[in-house]
Specification:
This protein is α/β, with parallel strands linked by helices and 185 residues long. The chain contains four helices and nine strands, in the order E-E-H-E-E-H-H-E-E-E-H-E-E. The chain has a four-stranded mixed beta sheet with strand order 4-5-9-8, covered by helices on one side. Strand 2 (18-26), helix 1 and strand 3 (55-61) form a beta-alpha-beta unit. It is globular and about 55 Å long.
Length: 185
């Protein structure tokens, strides 16, 4: 979140006014899901997580690997956080070269201090074969980003375990993932 206006205070709560703008980019059309999330985050009955006037979303139905670097319009200059959530494996599977170019282009499009959060399945799902040798994707990411990004947080293997008794319309499974948080330097 970034400060939304002049450092002023919200008179009712005494807290700083906060604004959240989300720019979402995906090759699939997530418009209906994004609209549902917006409604869920900003509507009553409580809890309302954020005021509708302080929350906005821009969705770009775009293949991020289709251009040599993402057009600047897709990534606002004041971006504070970029997330790659369970997509890096798919991007590398589609094109290792284009994915590497995309990751390197983020340095030119972001300001110093911007954070990059990467979550990806751990284990055999997150390995890359290069010249007959298999490397963990996390290691490839660390190497690719090492020139302009510093690692702030890393974990090679975390478990997300579902609470016992959780009921959901489809089967859900426990999962293991790796985590990286990079900061643009």
């Amino acid at each position: 979140m970034e400060d939304g206006g002049g450092g002023g205070k919200n008179g009712e709560s005494g807290r700083s006014k906060r604004e959240l703008h989300v720019t979402a980019i995906d090759i699939a059309d997530w418009t209906s899901i994004i609209d549902t999330l917006r409604t869920g985050l900003t509507s009553s009955p409580p809890p309302t997580f954020i005021s509708p006037s302080n929350y906005s979303v821009t969705f770009h139905h775009h293949d991020i690997l289709s251009t040599p670097s993402p057009p600047p319009a897709l990534l606002p200059p004041n971006t504070s956080l970029i997330t790659l959530l369970f997509t890096t494996n798919e991007l590398y599977t589609q094109s290792r070269g284009d994915t590497t170019r995309f990751l390197l282009s983020l340095s030119a499009l972001t300001r110093v201090g911007c954070l990059l959060l990467v979550l990806e399945s751990a284990g055999s799902y997150s390995t890359i074969e290069i010249n007959g040798k298999v490397f963990p994707m996390a290691m490839l990411l660390d190497h690719t980003l090492s020139e302009n990004w510093e690692i702030v947080l890393k974990d090679e293997s975390r478990w997300h375990r579902l609470p016992e008794g959780l009921k959901y319309p489809i089967d859900l499974e426990n999962m293991r993932y790796f985590l990286r948080v990079y900061r643009r330097v």
